[in-house]
Amino acid sequence: MGQQIGEQRPDLHLGDPDGPSVVTPHGKGAKDTETHQVTVPAANHQPIVRGPGHGEAMNTNREIHLVTRPAGEPRPENFDLVTTALPDLAEGQVLVRNSWMSVDPYMLDRMREAESYLPPFQLGAPMEGSAIGQVVASRSADIPVGATVAHFLGWREYAVVDDAAVTVADLSLAPEQAWLGALGTTGLTAYAALTQVAPVREGDVVFVSAAAGAVGSIAGQLARKLGAARVIGSAGGPRKTRKLVADFGYDAAIDYRAGSLAGHLAAAAPGGIDVYVDHVGGDHLVAAIDALRHGGRIAMVGAISSYYANEPVPGPGNLFALAAKDATLRGMLINSYFHLFPEWIGKAAGWLADGSLRTELTVAEGIEQAPAAFLDMMHGGNVGKMLVKLSD
Description:
Oligomer: single chain
Order of helices and strands: EEEEEEEHEEEEEHEHEHEHEHEHEHEHE
Largest sheet: 9 strands, mixed
């Protein structure tokens, strides 16, 4: 049995001071990424090549395992920190010392046994997710020691990965963290949602829920770049709503905890909206359908409001209004849009470099804090992307 995970770190929770329910701009400006610390080959055989300081003594690993499946909301006791032996590399594999890993809402579905687009995590085995790190040993002709690579074996300090399953990250374009955020599936989700699923047209009014989160904080800025005339976001608490307007390109921000969401949306967009990027479902989707103009478009990216439901959640009562408005509501899986990665990275890297795309990180320190970071992210404790720093 491994080390039992403790309670969530209290400093991972970001409190919201009192403030207005709708925020309008006092001025915008591009800024650098802000971080919240919350703490050689033979013809048919590739020899192991190890980097300096990574010899035979490096033979153990620390991993987060899922030990029980959550009933409703996940808890610290669902996870275990386990020390394991690192396996020998096979030909075509690399050993990666993970420096950063991502925690994301979709992982909750994989903790359950319910059918989904990805298989459930196995009990008593390391969990998976996006990570990035340095290759410290290699039996690959294509991936040398010292390369920085992104892959899908997070939730562990070291990962043994097939070379076909890694992507070499170009750190001249952006630092490691960006390849799990703006240049990763987070940024691609915003781009696909606003160009393919619910495309923004010149002069549109755009509404984004969970707008201070990983995808939402990019989507507002991107909508503006795509020609939106007005961009409105919703978030929980005045601290986040102020960030939407000051840093993330929104013209108005709604605190969904304060008063009527539908009323606030009507005040922010009296003529209605053309595009809604939905991360919440529930009352946000109802309000957006009511506010949608003729020919409006909705991208269904997530449904935070139903994540902890133990029974199916009823759909919005005004769903048929979409027919009368000749509107569309379309779901999306990011896997279907991976072909857009080169296009997106080409654009986003330039925007990051010139400061016109602002990103933020909320960071937890150490593999033992990964479950707490996941739980806190699910409760809205992050601004921008939530990451776990595993090594320097």
